[in-house]
Amino acid sequence: MLRQLAAEVTACERCARLVRCCRDAAEAPPKRFAGARYWGRPVPGFGDRRARLVVVGLAPAAHGANRTGRVFTGDRSGDWLYRALHRAGFANQPESTHANDGLALSDAYVTCAVRCAPPGNKPSPKERDRCLPFLARELELLRRARVIVALGAFAWDGVLRAARALGHAVTPRPAFGHGAVAHVGPYTVIGSYHVSQQNTFTGRLTEAMLDAVLARASAQLATDHEP
Prior knowledge:
The chain starts with a helix and ends with a helix. It has a 6-stranded mixed sheet, sandwiched between helices. It is about 40% helix and about 10% strand. It has helices at about 1-10, 15-25, 65-70, 75-85, 125-140, 155-165, 195-200, 205-225; strands at about 45, 55, 110, 145-150, 180-185, 185-190. The radius of gyration is 16 Å and the shape is globular. It has a single domain, classed as Uracil-DNA Glycosylase, subunit E (3-Layer(aba) Sandwich), CATH 3.40.470.10. It is an alpha/beta fold.
């Protein structure tokens, strides 16, 4: 069950470097979060357990999800993502500020390839591999999942690795790109630039571009027939 998996994710301490990073961020927050009670642990996925759309990011932000305890919540990346999901009809509200803000997803589930906030937002290959079984199990438990939107090349790689772990052929290996589409097992995987400030502030990713990716996902879901 997803609830049991979430408990396992939250309790994980396999990567000492990531454990330290999560706790260090909680113990020395920036002034804008002074006095805030941080989650400071691995962050599980969030959303509709019957979701057909799965959105996969890189990892929690040190002062976003690592603070709030909910993926893509409490930072500007989350603002972008959930506004887009709201516009596309997958979220009941555009705001995602804290874990009890009333946000609910419909037919969508949001998760990450790595569950702890990594230093410099760069997990190591070993940290990625230790976390990979969580994503594979998540996809397995999300039995209705048909479309996966991968935010960035790291998430794209994680999705392909998780699909391979579930026994789906990933050859030839599809290349990441914004708007790239790959069919892997039962999934249609769609690539998008990540909603990081590095991309949104520079205009590399615009709201229109993200909306187009989610529109493509919605169109694909409209044509899919569950077995």
